[in-house]
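We modelled the chain as a single entity of 665 amino acids. Its sequence is:
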Amino acid sequence: MKNKLKIIVSVISFILICSVLLPFLWACTPTETDTTGTSNNPDSGEQGENPVENEVADIYTSKEIADAIMAAYAPEDIPEGTAFQHFFSGAEEGSENYLSPAQAGLLINGSMAEIKEFDYLEDFAFHTPVGNHIFEVDVLKIKKGEEANLESVKELFTKRMKRKDNGDIRNYVQHEVPLIDNAKIINAGNYVILLATSDNSKGEAVINDMIKSGVKNDSSLSNDTTEEQSPAPTTEYKPVSLDEVVNIEPEILFDLELFTTVNQVTDPEPDPSQPRRTAVPSVTVKKYSHNTSFIVGGKCEVGAMIRVTGGTEEVYTSSDIGSYLVEVPFAEEGTTTLKLTAELDGKSPSFEITFIIKPQTDVDLYDKYGIYGTVIGYNFMTYVEDCMPDYLGTNLINDAEIAALTQRTQTKIKNLRDKGCNAEIIYLLAPNTVRIWPENVPMRYTENKNDTLVRQWKEGVIAGGATVLDLTDLMMSHKNDEFKIWHKTDTHWTEYGAMLGYYELMNYIAQKFPDAAPRPRSDFEPYTKEANFGDIFNFLELNISDLKETSAFVKFNFEPPIFNDNYDTGHPDLYNGNSVCLVHNRVEFSHTTESNVAGVKLPKAYFFRDSFEGPLHAFYTDRFSSATFKSMWDYNFNATEIAKENPDYVIYIISERNIKNVLYN
């Protein structure tokens, strides 16, 4: 009986205690928010109207949380060569940590425009990698009263990761792709946090510890940014099925089951009284590029013209040393019959190759790569979408922005002078190929000849005291040289084109430092060779053996300084096997070279650069007593750091399409 009384008393006591404590505990317990922002608290009373719960700790600034997360990662957790830019609210305008509205637009969307969602934020912090790297930690804190805009704020990070998932990453730093694939967007209270790290659990542990919001490592609090991402480009060739495309040319002996063109076709015995026929071209590429566009490519006789009829536009274009690629738009309804022939002077046209095609509904080949989407021009020339705003004039800035650019340039120079450094700032500008070969741009693009971002940018930086060596006119004068100045299947110039840039730069510097004059031309031997295609054709998702390009390279008759212990020479092989596709990581990391030429007076240089510097690198390393190279695509101008090196020149090597990346630097 006594035991029963004890049990009854204990139960009553427990009930009384719970009745007092439970309401208090309920009020103090943070609630969990799913990715839709809807409270999981059954007593909230307003589910869906107040998507971000305020019970979690929100006493920290975004910067404090972002800094703490970054501190959780050891150097070995971060991919080699990664440097960071750090932007946060409250940074002094004009400082390296200040994020202007235009910069924010460039960061998130790739365009210099203000982002309205920033009006919903109390503060922000970005730890973003410089150049082609992924590791990133960003924090946005939503203002009280703006919780209904949670989804819009989260979408900023989705856009950020989609912008980073580009062709350069997929082609050149494939080992970092998992950081994109595993990136997470976490909503904890009024904070939205992006983790694109080698181990997101370390960042999540910090979030748990600081915000104490019950953040869990599960799908309810993470938003996989890759759900709508395009898959990595594949090199596996998948033949087009017969219900999509049918070749029906019996004279050319098609294997209809495999949908493969028989490349070697024996012409009938020639009639001596008739001109000899041009050889039938081989077809190694045949696929849809848009729902109503079709591309065909392969090999033909050197010098042959390729004609394709039957589309909405007749295509008549030259081949390139025996290689061709054409894009043909066709009707939006019904079936279309395309007929392709090769024509060589002095010969009659080849036998026809016929394709029967029809409109598609799901071709996303161009949409996948955004600014790196391929624009197939005429005469085997290809471009990337990133060049087209410069050509169309859709990226122009206003007078106020030009004046601000002048002011920023003056500030750079003043900061150097204040620290005892008298370096001259030089920009060596490689033009876009659309400037050099506008005649090969597809007709659907109309050039803006009234003004260009190049002109505006040059006006601003020159007025600020910098020097611009614009190579546009030089390259125009060499566009028809025996050796190519630009690859036609890659975004970069050839080694021969880089050599021309080298002479322009060093002839300018030799005005003050005669010993730095460029080497005699006899030290360089340009030559041509056939190689696999470059990075632009990668975006077409072709097999590496589908098409070739004959391009220009340069043999050195001297030994440049060794700059990396991993190489036996200062002229490393920068190409991906027998391809014109560059492997940036052989020269992209920060390093310093010293000249191996004795008994001369040479200048010192400090370099900022994009990937155009790669083919140029070995040419001039013995023309400077020492040259300090920032990591590629790291344009962070730190006057104190530069002044320690005390260079004679601060040199930017950039392409026209990268002007946008130094506009606000």
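As a brief sanity check on the tokenised model: The longest helix spans residues 2-28. Residues 1-9, 14-54, 216-266 have pLDDT under 50 and may be disordered.
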